[in-house]
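A note from the maintainers: we've had questions about how concatenated examples are separated. There is no special marker in the raw files; a new sequence line simply starts the next protein. For clarity in this README we add a label.
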Amino acid sequence: MKRDEMDRRKRNAAGFRLVTFSLLIMIFIGACTTGPKYRKPTATIPKVYKEMTPENFKEMYGWKVARPMDDQIRGNWWEMFNDPQLNDLAEQVNISNQNIAAAAANFRAARSMVKQARSEYFPLVTTTPSYTRSRVSSLGGQLSPPGGGPITNSSTARLFTDISLPFDVTWEADLWGRIRNTVSANAFEAQASAADLENTRLSVQAQVAIFYYELRGQDALKQLFDASVRAFQETLELTRARFDTGIASDQDVAQAETQLKTTQAQATDLGIQRAQFEHAIALLVGQPASTFSIPVEPLKQEPPPIPFGVPSELLERRPDIAAAERRVAEANAQIGVTKAAFFPALLLNASAGFETSSITNWFTWPSRVWSVGPTLAQTLFDAGHRKAVTEQAWATYDGTVANYREIVLTAFQEVEDNLAALRILSQELKQQDAAVDSSERFLSLATDRYKLGIDSYLNVVAAQTILLNNQELAVRLRIEQMTASAQLIKALGGSWNASQLPTVRELK
């Protein structure tokens, strides 16, 4: 009996040493991580914006940026336009826009993926309690019951009960960084989703501003055409009076009527675009178009001076660039996941519980059962499957790098496009305002000469048409100027900065 006890203790000690040795291997090898070290991809960055020379900036805005803090967009960027109605609409976007809500849900889903991957750091504990009542065949020979032991030929002895309550523990040692790289990849994707959310928010806010100033522009055009209709109505009455006295011809009256009716039709047509812009804004702020309205108010605002910083800051200010860069980091971590498949996986399995044939003895010490031991798994042949998966991961990484660089180039293009638009529009508006002044003078002279009987009414019609066209073009140029300002702010990333991204630790 003593020898059996000594043998049992020796076996237990040997098992304990095996488990301890396995744990030591895990500790020493646990710091190993496969996969390349991540380096942020390079991109071509200009030293200065081509369109933003001091002369151009002064021409556009008439002021000079003060250093070092006045060249950054801060807070709610739309407040730069000093328009209370726009402020209200931009705030509603944050609350009710469905694209933003969908992007926020995607971010939460990506964050939950980080938690799912992180759970693999810890053991998996399961239990499968069972109750089994079985009968062994009378013709099956000397069979043993589930728990072992002698059996007789009596029919009652062939009925068995087995009650068990096992607890199984499985834990994979992260020897080669598979789990760590998976957690990192999911964390980088969650960061990219957070940047996607901010990019969606910025895009929708900018779109609201653009549609808003398009709508205000339609109000300004309607005001212009309504004023022209009143002026043409007065001219028609004057022409009729001259016709009644025999000074003017019926042709002059017909020309005046034609111009009046044409302008009235153009004024009415403006209502279509205004309604469409109003409905588009309703969609962006998450309200039904049927119950949403914006009071009529002609465009009066001037574009605000927009701080633009230096080109190198654009990489930190654009959320779409940040999202693309985080996906490069994610692809890099996925390479480490695929490389870990080339190395053996070490699993530690343990099981303990109680098993008995009688419920009265279920939790007694003799009914205990347990087992523990490591398992080493290694793929010996897979016909190049792992190599192909690794090559795919490298190709995906190269694709994300190319996509990142393309987004950076596109960002600089958008900034330069809108800077050029604002610079050229500022010049064009000065020229167009001068054309409007000349047109007004031309109309005044043509009207006076017509009243004096020197020229025909055709000259008045031509002068009125030229003035209206120039006034309309001036309004449309101001609409372009306001929308280009909103687009420039969007291209600069608004007031967002990459430092606002959640850190990997916060995501875990």
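[label: protein 2]
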Amino acid sequence: MILGLTENPMSRNFFVLSLETPPYDRSKSIVVPDYTPTGDVICTYLSILFGKRFDNHGRLESDGLFFLPRISERWSPCNPSLSFNNHKPRPDLSIPLNLDEVRRIAPFLEENRVDLRSELFLRSAGRFYLHALQEAESQPEVAFLDLITCAEILANYFEYDQDDLLDDQIKQDLTRIVEKLDDGVAIARRIRGRLFQVRRKFTNTLLHLLSPYFFQQTEASEKFCALKKDDIATRIKAAYDLRSRYIHTGLDFGKWIMQRNAYNQEVHIGIPVVDDHEFRDLLVKAPTFLGLERIMRFCLLRFMHLYGSPIDDRLAGEGLPRNGIGGNDE
């Protein structure tokens, strides 16, 4: 069912997913499984593939029982100009908005076709990506944090050398402890075991999953407000710091990262008028929600391609320069 063939705040496409399930032995007492969560998984994969918002409205029929779809839960006007709401293919891979394209991710929908560990990490991270799209307009701070959580989940997939997650100053401090204290080696070992550089791991992962190809396209209307390769590491770190600032202070930043203008900006334009200089600096450096969303979708697609099943040859190749991350980019 289609409500509006042209983009408008209430345009929606509705699809029905049918699942063939094994027959039940009705002579035995059984509990009929609820396959609604399968719809959640499918919506997650479709959102990553197409870069659009997909909502699961629940089951319609199961084993002869009929149900009403939960349409009202997600039935509210949306901004049709946003890239994850509009009717245009995302420009990075230009995947047509046609369900035939699901063949690209078919192995993820079939049992034992993809490495289970990769699949579990992808599903967990993808759920936060989809939730970010669903909440972007009503709760931009929550949506921004969802994208950060998505990246943190992907970061935990990789193995890191602990020393590569420590900055130079921490390494120097630990060296002094070893040299100056009688039991310095044991103390330094304990400190290393407790120092978990989450932001550095977060940054390394995104740099690994991004690639030079990512910067060949942009959804910003002007180059000056598009993400660029030369400062992407700084912007990724600022995004994580902005998330930390919100968690520790509760300082709202939604109106700054979700500005609506004709530029479809991926980075902040101008200097925000806020009293807190540190907060202002983070807002200037961090990508907007649209910029971070594009980063995370590309990273999810690359993760699927490199560690699950091939999707598109343009997702292959080396990532950006990074420190201390394992795995290959073939």
